[in-house]
Amino acid sequence: MKSPMLLLASGFALGIFGAHEARLALSLPACGACLLAGLLALERGRHWTAAWLVLLGFVFAGASAARLFQYRFPPDHVSHLAEWGIDLAKPVEIEGRLVTNPLPMPYGIEFDLQACRVSGARASHKASGKIRLRVFNGWRSSVPAGALHLQFGESIRALALLRRPHNYQNPGSFNYRRWLDTIQDVDWEGTVETPALVETMKGPRPAWLSGAVERARVRLGRSIDELFPPWSAEGRDGAVLRAVLLGDRSALDSATIENFRQSGLYHLLVVAGLHVGLLAMLVAGLLRLFRLQEPWRSVLLLVFLAVYAALVDERAPTLRATLMIAAYIVAKLVDREQPALNAVGIAGLILLFYRPAWLFDSGFELSFAAALLIAGLAVPVLKRVTEPCRHALRRVDEVALDPAFEPRWAQLRLDMRGAAGWLGQHSSLFRSASAVELVAASLRLGVWVADLVIFSIIIQLGLLLPMAQMFHRVTLAGIGLNALAVPLMTLLLAVAVPAVLLNLFSPLLAWLPSRLLALTMTGLFHLTELRGLPGWLSFRVPSPPGWVAWGFALLLVAAAGVLAFNRRGLAMLVAGAGVFGLLIALHPLSPRLPSGEFEVTALDCGGGEAFFVVFPDRTTMLIGAGGGSRRRLGGGDPFRAQRWDPGENIVSPYLWSRGIDRLDILFMPSLRGDRLSGVAAMLRNFSVREFWYGSLPRQPFAASLLALLRRRGVRLRHVTGDFDGVHVLWPEPGAEEDSREAAPWAVRIANPEGSILLAAGFDRSTGRAF
Q1: Left (φ > 0), alpha (ψ -120 to 50) or beta: where does 713 sit?
Q2: How many helices (H) and strands (E) does the chain have?
Q3: pLDDT, tens digit (0-9, with 9 covering 90-100), for 39-89
Q4: Cys-Cys link to 562, which of 40, 181, 313, 566 (CB 3.0-4.6 A)?
Q5: H or E segment at 437?
Q6: Furthest-apart CA atoms within the chain: distance in Å
Q7: H helix runs in 263-406, sequence order
Q8: In whole angstroms, what separates CA 223 from the centre of its chain?
Q9: Which distant-in-sequence residues (6+ apart) come within 8 Å of 434 by Cβ?
Q10: DSSP assignment, residue 649?
Q11: Distance, CA of 549 to CA of 546 (rounded, Å)
Q12: SS3 543
């Protein structure tokens, strides 16, 4: 068994996945009993029985870890705040220490506070745990929140209104509350209305190590900002560089994020295995220049990996890559072979034992899916396809080595020597002693390109399922673009690290590296900003049904298992996985809609409005796109990609969860206020047959809307009064739509099954009887 740790980690993960079915009182004793029975079986020489018992023990261990994880907090933790008798309907006084540096936001600043005391009007309680606070610029004060100059480790007292993180209660929606609780250890969010409600106070300083790491992170961020100031034309370079080096994506604009997603290169903005591996390779190459002994180089490389993992805030993908590389280095130091799949298993087992909830985190899942594809499929395929050729291209001029190769590779070596001789007769360039080496170098370049292409195809197609499930996106363009992005990212990291470090000491020393870095960043942006990219190279898809997802995953695992010994079985399994892959990408399956029934679903949009209607003939209509009645656009164009878009983040996931990829009618009774937000996302993500509207928005948004409708081939209908069973009661025909005030609307939908009145935006001042 070459990868026992991968099997143990899989069993542990299976136990976490099924923990909701297990009982803690039974899983702990069952774990101990299975492990003990496995040891007894091993002592009696029953190796297979012992292996199965140990694996079952790790399944129960995973279930126990998942159950115990919810009891990780002490009684004074803020997760129990609701039980302390404090009136949370009113602002409470919170004392604590900043454990993150304040993050500038459009409304003010945001940071995490390690609480030490929470006080209300009638009760005060000692506390521990994190609270995420947002300090608004404030309508009572002209002082911006950034003027507080708060820093990591500083103790403050603030008056904040606390609430649980809000979840949108729609199928398919991201569980934000669970993510904050299980991944960030944050149970409460607080809002501070004005900076005047925050005061600094004396308190304990943070530990030396955490303070040093945070100071280093801040200094590196400032160095990047000095090289590429945020307010300058090169500000986007700095934002991407922060994401690539430090994992800080807060400064990225919406257009940049969307470009990376559409091109299939968004993983470049996430510090994961590619970044850590390339940095480790560059550092190892640098250490060789100092002619240090192998043990010292390995120790220094391990120190570098540990420091870098701390700098990027110990995210799961970074830790996974760090642990895998560390396992390989340690195995090399003790002269032990470390299979790649075994390293994946070690990393997975350590991380899941530390935080079982990571199993359900998208970053963890994508990171380990990529690692398993690389170790289980890509590397074995390359060993069979291109590695023999790569070996044959070494020391081609040594004839005595030819018998050591298979006949076809020995013949290749003969042909290269013959080609070098023929070229030497026609060109003086090939008359030197290194003529054969020049011919071999050109072939090595071709093999390297083939490796990149095969590697990119396997990874991109293998990640088809998780990308469709988590992000509802299929990006075939990434197959070719990733082959170009890997060498470009290697160059970028090789130039970026010295440029940023040199700028800490002298901007003059960093001038040349920074210019080279700017050129490299330009090349990266050219890869992501492909104008006129055909739609079939990057498109959105609904969530695949469970049987399709399981079929695709199991066939890929089976293909990896038979790769080494059964070519015919491998071909059949790959063909079967390809069929399921087509079902995921093309989604020819019918959406989950009722037949012969009239269905109306009101979506939770957090103050916005969206109603999904299914008529008895299965005609679908979406009324509203999740926008609200208040104007929060701030003069921006709602038809450009936004960091937060109700159509993208609320309505689209619900429709995709029902297998819907097209809408018959998108109906917007009113386009005043903020209701226009979300429309562009719906038109981009779904095939819409008709767009119904009560009146067009004011210029220039009307021109943008009409242009988008024309590009998408959507039929436009102006609906007033009664139209096809849809009766617009408000706004009345001819009502002025340029107002910035709340824009109520009311629609009655009638059909043979009955009728329903849908209304939004009405209050006592605008209320009306119909």
Answers
A1: left
A2: 25, 20
A3: 888 888 888 898 899 999 999 999 999 988 988 899 999 999 988 888 888
A4: 566
A5: helix 435-462
A6: 98
A7: 273-289, 294-311, 316-333, 340-354, 362-373, 379-385, 387-392
A8: 26
A9: none
A10: I
A11: 5
A12: coil
Residue type, 739: S
Name residue 628's amino acid. G
Which helix (H) or strand (E) segment holds residue 456: the answer is: helix 435-462
Output phi, psi for 198, to 5 deg: -120, 130
Tens digit of each residue's pLDDT (9 = 90 or more) over 256-287: 888 888 888 888 888 888 888 889 888 888 88
Tell me, what amino acid is at 768?
R
Helix, strand, coil distribution of the chain in percent, nearest 5: 55, 15, 30
Pair of tokens at residue 546: 């469970």
Tokens of 750: 């009638």
Distance CA 737, CA 37 (A): 76
Q: Cα(565)–Cα(570) distance, rounded to whole angstroms?
A: 9
> Which is it for the CA torsion 732, 736, 738, 744, positive or negative?
negative
Q: Which residue has the tokens 């090595």?
A: 444
Q: What is the pLDDT of residues 621-645, one digit of tens each?
A: 999 888 775 545 444 566 666 677 8
Q: Which of 223, 222, 217 is nearest to 514 (CA)?
A: 223
Q: What type of residue sits at position 473?
A: R
- Copy the structure tokens of residue 119: 């006080």
User: Rounded to an integer, what distance in angstroms lies between the CA atom of residue 545 and that of residue 135?
Assistant: 43
Q: How far is 219 from 228, CA to CA, in rounded Å?
A: 14
What single-letter amino acid sits at 492? L
Three-class DSSP category at 169:
coil
